[in-house]
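Input record (one chain):
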Amino acid sequence: MLLKNASVLIIDDDTDVLTAVRLLLKTEAKEVVTEKNPENLRWLLSKQTFDVILLDMNFTSSINTGNEGLFWLNKVKEFKSEAAVIMITAYGDIDLAVRSLKEGAADFVVKPWHNEKLIITIKEALKRKGTGKAAAGPSINNDSIIGKELLGESEIMQDIFYKIEKIAPTDANILILGENGTGKDLIAKAIHQQSLRADKAFVKVDVGALTESLFESELFGHKKGAFTDAREDRVGRFEGANNGTLFLDEIGNISLHQQAKLLSVLQNRQVTRLGTNDAVPINIRLICATNVPLAELANENRFRKDLIYRINTVEIMVPPLRKRETDIILLAKHFSRLYSNKYLKPVLEFDTKAMDKLLQYHYPGNIRELQYTIERAVIMADGNVLQSSDLIFSPIESSVVVDSEPDELKLSSVEKNTILRVIEKHNGNITKAAKELGLTRTALYRRLSKYDI
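The corresponding structure, as predicted from the sequence alone:
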């Protein structure tokens, strides 16, 4: 169905939003109706038929559920409306918006949006509605690393891909949280590739590795003679990323003094090179990442809260590999193809026992550990099929246990005893036990079989 033939209903308690969307769609759609109060939804839908409903996620209405958008989305379905519902959400409610897709929404848009992007979203929703198709997955551009390097079929990764699609076109500052080796840098790169700055520079800095003396020079630049080793003028990383994206990795490891310097630049949107008083305006999209949990960052003895708010307009939580069990074999096969090509070998497959071994391991080093394990296996393998014995996990990550230690200290015994205690705690309820252990039911059943529990 074409937008010019469509009737659009916008429900939002912000009159500025209603006015802006009505003016935008006035010449694009057949009819545009605006409504501040969602409780008038039943009356509106009984009065006429709408092709698209733009529905806000939060209202100051009597329905105080904390997720009013989901409540009214379900009411639309109860009222038997066949309209494609597009949720309007703020940055902080993106997780709820992703959930709304699973409950029947056609799509969602993030405030503030680009007008062109909103129109495209409405047109795509109408197109899917006309063909009877469900909401499609994220629209990935051909150059994106999603599906090439950044892989995942698990539900949690699909949610992250939706987030990337929705927040990338904005200039919102992003904080990526996750353990070492989970792929935070790939997510940062994917956000840049799908942003409006994709054709500009993507500059990565491991700020956690910068010493106090190098921090300002590396980020802000310096003039010749500013300090002993400053033999020439140098542009800092902020200037190098101007009009593009600056990715500050391991942001949680910088000192309070460095945080103050960084905050000043972000607030003023300008940098001053060492050795000069000239301020240079900057226009960057900032993405930060850390393996430090957000709860620890909230400790003001470690990290400034005003800086957290500045860098954390939207946060993305990257799960550890042990919570992405359905992605393990997918990633292992990807690395097998990658390193088979690199080392000029035929693409190696995995036998059943090898796959079982991959699925049973807990991956303290996450995807990076899996990658190096597969690389080593490809190098050492003699045949065309990887056996269980070819997969040797790094002792750097694994707990080293010697035979002289008592059995109860061995890793397998610790895991077995933990599983027994949790199952006993939940009176044999496998679902609750698996949830507390951070495992899927399938993974827990495998461990029960492994330990003859």
